[in-house]
Amino acid sequence: METLKKIIAQKKIKGISDYFTLYRRLNRACKEKEPSYDKKMKIAILSSFTSNGIKEALYVKCCALGIFPEIYVAKYKQYTQEILNPESGLYQFSPDLIILFIDAMTLWGDDFFQAYRRSDTSRKEWVSENGDEIESLIEKIKEGSSAKILLHNLSVPEYSPLGILENKQDFGFFEATESLNRKLRADYKTDRQVFVFDYDAFCSKIGKQHIVDHKMYYIGDMKLSLNHMPALADAYLPYIKSMASMTRKCLVLDLDNTLWGGVVGEDGLEGIRLGPTPEGRPFWEFQKYILSLFERGVILAINSKNNFEDAIQVIREHPDMVLREHHFAAMRINWEDKISNIKSIAEEINIGTGSLVFLDDDKLNQEMVRTACPEVLVPVLPEDPSSYLQMLMEIDDFSSLQITDEDKNKGRMYAAQKKRTAIKKTATDLSEYLKQLKTKVTIEKANSFTIPRISQLTQKTNQFNMTTKRYLEEDIKSFSRREDVLVLSLKAEDKFGDNGICGVAIVKKGPEQWEIDSFLLSCRVLGRKIEETFVAYIIERAKNEQAQTLVGTFSPTPKNMPARGFYEKAGFSPLEGKKGREISVYDLNKAYPYPDFIQLIRTD
Known about the structure:
This protein is an alpha/beta fold.
């Protein structure tokens, strides 16, 4: 994959033709030497018109991210046939993501230009009929595939045969199209397999007058200009990155001229620019948006060269400061270099540096961090602070296909972690510290409420993850229905707060031998004997069902070394490994005591 990235980096991309060139070069490179990659994605594209260029642009952009894609494009206008035929190329391809792009002109047919030949009642029937047809196609896909489905809504036309009287109609051309969009949004609002892509908003952002190259439309039925295919591929990437567990977790912020205007060491508390004034509003509203990110689960940290007393006074006392001390999981306000601070922040929060986004107005600091820590995303902050907000809104690396209760409370969880760290420093030994926490653990079988979080943890957890198997919600649902599979979630809380669901175990049950398929725990609760409690519970369940042995596997990756050796420490005996895997077995005739200072709450 590194070779593919280098090929892309060497090419200056100016237009769509460069994507076709790069696509051919990347394919040749793959044929000469199979690329090594951690992430891969199979994407199917079904379209109601000629969509040349989207495959090439999306392929290049995925490779640039470190995702090796396989892309299947259905034949021209064959989307219905592909969906309805269970033996079609679509289902043989077994995609991870299916993009269904049906345009408004196709659905309206001849009435696209003569919608008022229809009555108001007929236009309402058009909405119902097309909504039902699309829903039927989606249900058919779901019968044959567990892939995520990205369904385009319709671009609401920019013209009306009635001109300025369009909005005076009881149920007009625009309203009918908008109604179908509302129906699609309502139909799939709670469906975790289907996501409605706002193609109407995409077209508005570009400008609906410019969305089509009319010459190419008449020549080849292209209803989206080739020049806009890379932008459409960009709009798909947040979904793809989320599916590939490539979302970022933490936003690291500079202070002077980033969170507020001016330099506090020179301008003082009263002199910095922050608040409802022309100069202060850009920073004020920038902070408001950052707070909204915090409230959806993005971790915040500070990396600033400053006198600590000057900076913390602003954070604690300035009347227009939106972000306060408790919003930040880590603060490095000192005169150390930004690179050391970045690494220190990641270590304190216990996440990889690849999960960080760093914002700093100083171009030298940007370049230093970008060079020393290439895995950290370092956007170019605009010269004009009035553009900060728009720049941050366009960063899609915090996007997620779902937001769980644990995500929403993540900031508060990290604030509680600070208190745990403080008490750990004062405790005389580890046992005393763990007893002071008064930890409670709740273990329960997967259900409709916990399945989204279980899937999310399998996708995101790297450090303490014994096999790093990634499962979609549909996979977890399938496991949970089986009698021979036990899917468990673990919730942990202590006197400082609730960590939410932070552990997962998937166990395959045999008559005499049980096998742990997945065993993982969020890094923020490691080292508190919670993992031992989880194993003790699994062992107890296996014994109760008359199993004789419990098998655990460790599959090493560059990121899960903290998990190595856990089974052996827990009393498992090593067996001969296979294909790089380390296999251990526990004799269920042996006792495995629960840690005496953890309260286990049973739900079975």
